[in-house]
Amino acid sequence: MKTARQMERHLKGVSNHCRIEILLLVNNEPGVTVDGLAKGLKKNFKTVSEHTRRLVYAGLINKTYKGRSVGHTLSPYGKILVKFLQSFRNS
Hints:
The protein is an alpha+beta fold. It has a single domain, classed as Winged helix-like DNA-binding domain superfamily/Winged helix DNA-binding domain (Arc Repressor Mutant, subunit A, Orthogonal Bundle), CATH 1.10.10.10. The protein has 5 helices and 2 strands, in the order ααααββα. The protein has helices spanning about 5-15, 15-30, 35-40, 45-55, 75-90; strands at about 60-65, 70-75. Strands 1-2 form a two-stranded antiparallel sheet. A hairpin with a 2-residue loop joins β1 and β2 (about 70-75). α2 packs across α4 (about 45-55). The longest helix is centred in the C-terminal third of the chain and has 14 residues, at about 75-90.
């Protein structure tokens, strides 16, 4: 069972519209790089990079190093939150 602080970290990690968009895009394109996220969302590379850093800290996405590029995938908690966001969006 998670503590209130652990739940807070996950919820704060997703408390931004840009981070929600990133989570949904990573769900649709596992292994996407920050450059791919920035192009897909039509946002600044540095902005997306900072948001992905915060999502990694929150435990919602994982980094996978492939040479010089870094791919992103959802963590188990990220998958749970994406399912919640998708159901919330459609309700």
